[in-house]
Design a protein that fits this description.
CATH superfamily of the largest domain in chain A: Transferase(Phosphotransferase) domain 1
Strand order of the largest sheet of chain A: 1-2-3-4-6-5
Structural class of chain B: alpha+beta
CATH topology of the largest domain in chain A: Transferase(Phosphotransferase), domain 1
Strand order of the largest sheet of chain B: 7-6-9-10-1-11
Number of strands of chain B: 12
Oligomer: heterodimer
Shape of chain B: globular
Structural class of chain A: alpha+beta
Number of helices of chain A: 11
Radius of gyration of chain A: 20 Å
Helix content of chain A: 25-40%
Largest sheet of chain A: 6 strands, antiparallel
Radius of gyration of chain B: 20 Å
Distance between the termini of chain B: 46 Å
Number of domains of chain A: 2
Order of helices and strands of chain A: EEEEHEEEHHEEEEHHHHHHHH
Largest interface: A-B, 40 and 42 residues
């Protein structure tokens, strides 16, 4: 926002054992920095700094917390802790890695492994409309990337956690094309005896109906809707119709069918399955979903077009490669 | 839409701040809210907090990205907030309902509408002059209306704190709707609690708010309101928006930056119990949690 934007920590600031290189991004809840340790290793550090509750002016390190906001600020820490706790338990190549967590400047910091690449959203936006009538992301890439995303998500669910905000902006592709699940800011303990007290904010289009209505039980099926919506986004170039509108007039089945000239029927059926409005009709576990995904074989024509695939990733790699500035093109949502 | 917006609140000399403020907007619609939880009743801050959440949630449900009927929305959202407060009373078995005054303003298609209950006010300023403001639902205002006292004596009237209309009372509130005013570039809309307006003469308030950008003017106004009334100062809250229209001034923020279908909000969504007293995270809990997270990291081989 142009107003009430908090000043980021200055370049070169010594934060614990790290040195701030620059701000990567800022969101309503936090600021993410690129930082280095004394050995020159790079990290992404997320600073808890809700812009509606605290103010930090240029030149200040410690934010000013108005007395009226103090309680909300401190309780907001719980959400930040939940994200740290969630990620600390997971060590998986397709899930962002938390390596440190500490207090400083009267707030808290989460240190994550820093990797170079781009979010799927950026990739989709770049490829959308380039060749009218052509697929946004070729089928072989959709299958390969989401198979790995599902590996990461299985690990998340195995730790009794739900991501609850799966969307292309939160799936990051490293330069070698392997995906990384990011931003567990909405993550919640799943399957706990106690029902959820705090419902996360959701992203229209990618969120399952149970995240809107807040009546049905959230579960793996909620993240499965997000996976289906993300795959849809990578294929159609735009998010599916928001779930609340679908309940009135569902246009999703016909938009899926309209992609039949570009994608195989089994893949389209799989997405339709993930995007069922009734949670019980969706795949009930990522394992089930992944098994179905792995049964989809590329048609001979699709398989025989290695050049498209190679070109696609070559473009990605060369773009990142030609810009040698550290962290160019990297997003870590705040 | 392009506009500048700023909100600020100070606790004053009170033990707690029962005022709540917030705004949210989509690409085409902006909702601003100030609520002043009533002291002298139980949990005034809960009523104010709930009202903002309910109105904010209604906005999120209906502004896609525009509201079909802005004044009808304001009426419906504030009445829904009223019912939620009564439901809260019922759920918690409170002997008395929490109450709040409220003022809400909606901007869409370059026009503004507002609604209020009680003595939280809206001011519309143009070119350094007051165009209009809301009339309080208070004992003092009714005395002024019937010619029994003069406007300028109202600040010192013994019954100046008596509010005749609010959300959360056992009586259905009156939501007084106003507006459908076409905004001009440079117009400022300000919503505030009585802790702000009662500290100034009206000319003084208008002058101060017109003298500088609201980005510095609002915090200064709130600061002065508290400063002038000293140790007994009431909670003081103001939220102001200066309309920049759609032109390319580059001033303020543009709602075009809001992605299609998304909403920007300063209102926390969640259940009220999350912010209730006694539920605050303690220093011990913070330290313990950080220790646990660091242990978990080292167990999974990080660090």
């Amino acid at each position: 926002m142009a107003t009430q934007t908090n000043a980021p920590l200055p370049h070169g600031h010594e934060l614990g054992e790290y040195r701030i290189v620059r701000k990567i991004s800022s969101g309503g809840f936090s600021i993410v920095y690129l930082a280095e340790d004394s050995a020159g290793q790079k990290f992404a550090i997320k600073e808890y700094l809700p812009s509606s509750l605290v103010k930090r002016r240029e030149g200040q390190l410690v934010p000013e917390i108005p007395a009226a906001s103090e309680l909300t600020f401190r309780n907001g820490l719980r959400c930040f802790f939940e994200e740290g706790r969630a990620l600390a338990r997971i060590f998986h190549p397709n899930v962002v890695r938390v390596v440190n967590f500490f207090r400083a400047n009267e707030t808290v910091y989460m240190v994550m492994a820093f990797e170079r690449g781009r979010s799927l959203q950026e990739i989709v936006l770049r490829h959308r409309g380039r060749q009218p009538g052509k697929e946004v992301l070729p089928e072989r890439h959709v299958l390969r990337v989401f198979n790995l995303v599902m590996n990461g998500l299985r690990e998340v669910h195995a730790n009794r956690l739900l991501h609850l905000d799966l969307k292309p902006a939160n799936i990051y592709l490293r330069l070698d094309g392997t995906p990384l699940l990011l931003d567990f800011g909405a993550a919640r303990r799943a399957l706990d005896a106690e029902p959820l007290k705090l419902f996360p904010m959701y992203t229209p289009g990618f969120a399952a109906p149970e995240l809107y209505r807040r009546t049905q039980q959230l579960g793996p099926w909620t993240d499965i809707y997000g996976i289906g919506a993300s795959m849809f986004g990578c294929m159609a170039g735009q998010p599916p119709q928001p779930a609340d509108q679908r309940e009135l007039d569902d246009k999703v089945p016909q938009t899926i069918d309209a992609m039949a000239d570009r994608y195989s029927r089994p893949l389209l059926d799989l997405i339709a399955w993930c995007l069922k409005l009734d949670a019980l009709e969706r795949p009930q576990s990522v394992f089930t979903l992944q098994r179905a995904l792995r049964r989809i074989h590329l048609t001979p024509e699709a398989a025989q077009k290695p050049s498209t695939a190679a070109r696609w990733f070559d473009t990605l790699a060369s773009r990142a490669g030609t810009r040698r500035r550290d962290g160019e093109g990297v997003t870590q949502p705040g | 839409m392009r506009f500048t917006i700023y909100q600020d609140s100070l606790i004053g000399g009170r033990a707690s701040n029962q005022d709540r403020m917030g705004y949210c907007f989509t690409r085409d619609s902006l909702l601003m809210l100030v609520a002043d939880g009533m002291g002298g009743h139980m949990r005034g801050e809960v009523a104010a907090h709930l009202s903002l959440q309910v109105a904010g949630a209604s906005f999120q449900e209906e502004a896609k990205p525009k509201l079909a009927d802005p004044p009808a929305f304001l009426d419906r959202a504030l009445r829904r907030a009223h019912r939620e407060i009564l439901r809260y009373q019922d759920m918690h078995g409170l002997p008395e309902s929490p109450r709040t005054t409220i003022v809400a303003c909606l901007v869409q298609d370059g026009r503004a509408w507002w609604g209020h209950a009680g003595d939280s006010r809206l001011y519309l300023l143009r070119g350094g002059r007051l165009v209009t403001r809301t009339r309080d639902h208070s004992k003092v205002q009714s005395l002024i209306d019937s010619g029994l006292i003069e406007e300028r004596d109202s600040g010192s009237h013994p019954e100046r704190n008596k509010v005749l209309n609010c959300l959360g009372s056992p009586f259905e509130p009156t939501i007084e709707l106003g507006g459908d005013v076409a905004l001009e570039p440079g117009d400022t809309l300000m919503l505030c609690s009585d802790g702000v307006w009662s500290a100034f003469h009206e000319e003084e308030l208008v002058e101060q708010l017109s003298a500088e950008s609201i980005l510095s003017g609002v915090p200064r106004l709130v600061q002065r309101a508290v400063g002038q009334t000293g140790a007994m100062a009431d909670n003081a809250t103001a939220l102001a928006m200066t309309w920049e229209a759609d032109d390319a001034t580059g001033v303020g923020l543009s709602s075009q930056d809001v992605p299609d279908g998304a909403i920007t909000t300063t209102i926390a969504v969640g259940l009220i119990d999350e912010t209730a007293e006694g539920d605050a995270i303690t220093e011990d809990e913070i330290e313990r949690t950080i220790r646990e997270i660091r242990e978990a990291i080292s167990r999974t081989g990080g660090g």
